[in-house]
UniProtKB/TrEMBL annotation:
Database matches in InterPro entries: DBL_dom_sf, DH_dom, PH-like_dom_sf, RhoGEF_Guanine_NuclExch_SF, SOS1_NGEF_PH
Gene Ontology cellular component terms for the protein in this record: cytoplasm; extrinsic component of membrane
Annotated Pfam families: RhoGEF, SOS1_NGEF_PH
Species name: Schistosoma curassoni
DH domain residues: 1-145
GO terms under biological process: axon guidance
Descriptive protein name: DH domain-containing protein
Keyword list, A-Z: Guanine-nucleotide releasing factor
GO molecular function, one term: guanyl-nucleotide exchange factor activity
Length: 212
C-alpha cells in the first residue's frame, strides 16, 4: 500500500458502508413492502422518500463532500496501485468509476421521482414532490458543505454553528472603479440565517477561503 494511503481507508471509501447498510436494512425492505402488496401505488414510493429524506440527505451529502478528497488521494497516491488491483481482480472499471456511483445514485433517484410524479394522479403527487425536492436539495447541500469546510479565519467568538443554516453561497466578482485600470477580484459570499460572510481564496492554499 502506498505510504500516502496508509490509514486513509475511511477517506478513500467515505461512508459507503453506512449507505449500504441503510439501503439493505431499511430503505430497500420498505420499498419492497409496497411493491409486494396487492394495492401498490406510485405515491407509496414518494412516501418512503419523505419518511427517510433526512437520513438519505445526511448520508449522501457526507459522501459527496468526502468524494473530492477521496479523488485527490487516489490521483496523488494511488493510481498505479489501484490499477494493479483492477488487473489482479479482473475488474471491468477502475475504482473511481465505482466510487462515483453513490453520487450518480442521487441523480437516478431524482429521475425516478420525476417519472413517478408525471404518471400519477395530480391529486396524489404531494409526497412524490416532497421526496423529489429532498433529492434535488442534496447536491446543493453537498456543495455548500464542501465550501464551508474550506472557510478559514473566522473570529474565535463566532463559531459556524452560531450562524444558522446556509441560505446561499456563490462566487462573484468585485470591480474597483476608482482604479485607472479597473481590476476584478474574485470573492465568495456565504449568506447564513444570521450573518453574511465575504471570503477570498487563500493564495497559499488554493481552494481554501479566508473570511473577511
Amino acid at each position: 500500500v502506498p505510504s500516502g494511503l496508509i490509514g486513509q481507508v475511511d477517506t478513500v471509501f467515505g461512508n459507503i458502508p453506512l449507505i449500504y447498510e441503510f439501503h439493505k436494512q431499511t430503505f430497500e425492505p420498505e420499498l419492497a413492502k409496497y411493491t409486494e402488496s396487492g394495492d401498490f401505488l406510485p405515491e407509496d414510493v414518494g412516501h418512503c422518500f419523505v419518511v427517510h429524506s433526512d437520513r438519505l440527505a445526511e448520508l449522501y451529502v457526507e459522501y459527496c463532500v468526502n468524494n473530492a478528497e477521496s479523488t485527490r488521494l487516489i490521483i496523488e497516491h494511488g493510481q498505479s496501485y489501484f490499477q494493479s488491483l483492477q488487473l489482479y481482480f479482473n475488474l471491468v472499471e477502475p475504482l473511481q468509476s465505482y466510487l462515483i456511483k453513490p453520487v450518480q445514485r442521487v441523480t437516478k433517484y431524482q429521475l425516478l421521482l420525476r417519472e413517478l410524479r408525471d404518471c400519477c394522479d395530480p391529486a396524489g403527487i404531494g409526497e412524490i414532490s416532497e421526496g423529489l425536492e429532498a433529492m434535488l436539495n442534496v447536491p446543493k447541500r453537498a456543495n455548500d458543505a464542501l465550501h464551508l469546510s474550506m472557510l478559514q479565519n473566522l473570529p474565535e467568538d463566532v463559531p459556524l454553528s452560531s450562524l444558522g443554516d446556509v441560505i446561499l453561497q456563490d462566487q462573484f466578482t468585485i470591480w474597483e472603479p476608482k482604479q485607472l485600470i479597473k481590476k476584478s477580484r474574485e470573492r465568495r459570499v456565504f449568506l447564513f440565517d444570521h450573518c453574511l460572510i465575504l471570503a477570498k481564496e487563500a493564495t497559499n492554499q488554493p481552494g481554501e477561503h479566508k473570511s473577511k
